[in-house]
């Protein structure tokens, strides 16, 4: 009975979480503009790819997400390695400080970045746009990378770096050929989380984008203020599928890596 009840409970939770998404995907193929089903169609996907505003916003969002996640992954991995070498109170203090942006409300982070960029912009004479959004995304993505990489470093054998040096590796070879493969699952998880959060971010982007730069969440918000269009369903369905595919690729890669390790 316990097994059956646990399976039913798990199934109910999964249904509660994913049923709205499946309904959204189903209505992306609805021929009507309302919740009344009027037949199957692909015209909303066609209109989605014809929309210059959406495609431009999607391009901006993807560029920001890729650049921010790559740079944040690099900075976060290096920061996690640096924190790992600390001991005692210093390590706890720096770890807690690095976690503050994660628990800090996004609106506080967004307003803080906006005030900072407005102040610097006044001094140097530039407007907020692509660069400020990218810096802001790197800023809030980096702590998530640290959060994912740090546990992998803790699980690693503490003597593996010295052993690699004793066996003839240079410091660079020891890091790239020994340490990095050990923590790679954490690095990939940090990259994926950074990419997802950057892709989805609205509040921080809203405060740091200026008046001309537009990302996909901002464009969707603007569309919802005017009139709800079924192209939003099509767009959301595509984003969901892409996210699931990325998760599958990362999980398959991790499973193969674990099998090779065994």
Provide a concise account of the structure shown.
This protein is mainly α and 262 residues long. It has helices at residues 2-27, 43-50, 52-84, 88-103, 106-124, 130-155, 160-166, 171-200, 203-208, 216-226, 231-261.
Notable features of this structure?
single chain; 262 residues; mainly alpha; MetI-like fold; 11 helices
Explain the layout of strands and helices:
Elements: H1 2-27, H2 43-50, H3 52-84, H4 88-103, H5 106-124, H6 130-155, H7 160-166, H8 171-200, H9 203-208, H10 216-226, H11 231-261
Q: Could you characterize the architecture of this molecule?
A:
There is one protein chain. The chain has one domain: MetI-like fold (Orthogonal Bundle). The chain is an all-alpha fold and 262 residues long. It contains eleven helices and no strands. The chain has helices spanning 2-27, 43-50, 52-84, 88-103, 106-124, 130-155, 160-166, 171-200, 203-208, 216-226, 231-261. Helix 6 crosses helix 8.
């Amino acid at each position: 009975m316990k097994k059956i009840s646990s399976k039913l409970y798990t199934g109910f939770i999964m249904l509660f979480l994913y049923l709205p998404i499946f309904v959204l995907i189903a209505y992306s193929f609805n021929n009507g503009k309302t919740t009344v089903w009027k037949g199957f169609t692909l015209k909303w996907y066609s209109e989605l790819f014809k929309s210059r505003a959406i495609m431009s916003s999607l391009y901006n969002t993807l560029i920001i997400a890729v650049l921010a996640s790559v740079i944040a992954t690099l900075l976060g991995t290096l920061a996690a390695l640096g924190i790992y070498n600390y001991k005692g109170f210093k390590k706890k203090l720096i770890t807690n400080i690095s976690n503050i942006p994660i628990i800090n409300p996004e609106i506080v982070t967004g307003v803080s970045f906006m005030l900072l960029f407005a102040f610097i912009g006044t001094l140097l004479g530039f407007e907020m746009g692509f660069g400020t959004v990218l810096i802001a995304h790197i800023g809030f993505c980096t702590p998530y990378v640290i959060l994912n990489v740090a546990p992998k470093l803790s699980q690693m054998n503490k003597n593996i770096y010295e052993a690699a040096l004793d066996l003839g590796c240079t410091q660079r070879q020891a890091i790239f050929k020994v340490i990095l493969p050990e923590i790679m699952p954490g690095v990939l998880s940090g990259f994926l989380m950074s990419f997802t959060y950057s892709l989805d971010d609205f509040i921080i982007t809203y405060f740091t984008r200026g008046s001309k730069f537009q990302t996909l969440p901002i464009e969707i918000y603007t569309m919802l203020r005017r009139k709800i269009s079924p192209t939003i369903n099509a767009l959301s369905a595509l984003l969901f599928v892409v996210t699931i595919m990325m998760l599958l690729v990362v999980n398959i890669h991790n499973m193969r890596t674990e099998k090779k390790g065994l």
